[in-house]
Amino acid sequence: MLSSALPLYHLTSNNAMNIYNGREYEWMAITLLLGGRRVTGLRGIEYTAEQEQEAIYGAGSQPMAIQRGNIKYSGTITLTGSEFHLLQKACGGSILGASTTIIVSYGDPTQGDTMHTDTLIGCTFSKEEDKWKQGDKFTEYAIPFPFLRKQAS
After folding, report:
1. Tens digits of per-residue pLDDT, 104-139?
2. pTM for the predicted model, two decimal places
3. Which of 121, 116, 141 is closest to 29 using CA atoms?
4. In 3-state terms, what secondary structure has residue 62?
5. Which CA distances in Å does 91 have to 35, 78, 84, 95?
6. How many CB atoms neighbour CB 34 within 10 A?
7. Cα angle vertex 64, ends 58, 68, to 5°?
8. What is the pLDDT of residue 19?
9. What's the CA gap between 64 and 17, in Å, rounded?
């Protein structure tokens, strides 16, 4: 069993050791395409896949198995105010009901990183709000979205 004290090593599926360069992915190496357009006013992105699971019981008090059910995908994209208003305009004035694909790529091959791309298919926006408060230097909008599936490459 590997200890978390060995951050530069990784066991592959054939149990061979690979040595990493010790670098982590950085925010500056992320590119996000929303509806085919590169988003420059991106402040954050998070997305989750969650599967229903239920323990099955028989005789006794210990579970016999864990059964799996539906998979649910959801996320939140955080945009600057100007980027959010561009998105509203592109959707005909409101993002509600719009459906698109979001492509998230990160990694910098020039620094030795492996490129990673997640394609979030069937994203729809479920919330739209405007907000301002005293002292704001800019606005930021966190927009939740469900989606149909994620393809990673």
Report:
1. 998 887 877 788 999 999 999 988 888 888 998 889
2. 0.78
3. 116
4. coil
5. 10, 17, 11, 6
6. 22
7. 110
8. 52
9. 35
User: How many CB atoms lie under 10 A from the CB of residue 40?
Assistant: 12
Q: How many CB atoms lie within 10 A of CB 77?
A: 26
**Residue ranges of the chain whose pLDDT lies below 50:** 1-12
pLDDT at position 133: 86
Q: CA-CA distance, 42 to 69, in Å (whole number)?
A: 33
Tokens 């996000």 identify what position? 32
Other Cβ atoms closer than 10 A to 99: 14
Q: What is the DSSP string of 10-39?
A: EE-TT--EEE--S----GGGEEEEETTEE-
Show the tokens assigned to 130: 């405007």
DSSP annotation of 84: H
